[in-house]
């Protein structure tokens, strides 16, 4: 029996060495996969950051354009209001514009 145990011991050590080697290889593969995933996430984050910056720039430009349009519309409304006020005064006071013959 003792001889059989001695023969089994090197096989057991060899199996353990193979298992350890296999585990180390799996850990190396997992590490490589994690690094690859991290790199992909960083690339996606960078792309998202660029997209966000572009969206912010677009938003700022649209806001400025809208503010300009609002200002132009307000100017037109003010001019119309002045014209309406003048017309109202003319209607309320027709004697101002009566033709004297």
Task: List the topology elements.
Blueprint: H1 2-92
Structure in words:
With 101 residues, this protein is mainly alpha-helical. The protein has one helix at residues 2-92. The longest helix has 91 residues, at 2-92.
Give a quick precis of the structure.
By secondary structure, the chain is mostly helical. The protein has 1 helix and no strands. It is rod-shaped, with a radius of gyration of 43 Å.
Q: Note the overall shape.
A: rod-shaped
Low-confidence segments, given as residue ranges, are none
Q: What distance separates the N and C termini?
A: 146 Å
If you average the pLDDT, what whole number results?
A: 89
Helix amount: over 70%
Structural class: mainly alpha
Question: What is the beta-strand fraction?
Answer: under 5%
Largest sheet: none
Tell me the radius of gyration: 43 Å
Q: Total number of helical segments? A: 1
Q: Using DSSP, what is the number of strands?
A: 0
Helix-strand pattern: H
């Amino acid at each position: 029996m003792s001889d059989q145990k001695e023969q089994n011991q090197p096989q057991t050590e060899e199996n353990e060495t193979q298992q350890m080697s296999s585990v180390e290889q799996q850990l190396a593969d997992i590490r490589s996969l994690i690094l690859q995933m991290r790199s992909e996430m960083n690339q996606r984050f960078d792309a998202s950051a660029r997209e966000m910056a572009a969206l912010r720039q677009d938003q700022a430009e649209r806001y400025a354009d809208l503010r300009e349009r609002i200002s132009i519309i307000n100017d037109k409304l003010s001019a119309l209001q002045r014209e309406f006020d003048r017309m109202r005064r003319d209607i309320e006071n027709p004697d101002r514009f009566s033709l004297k013959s």
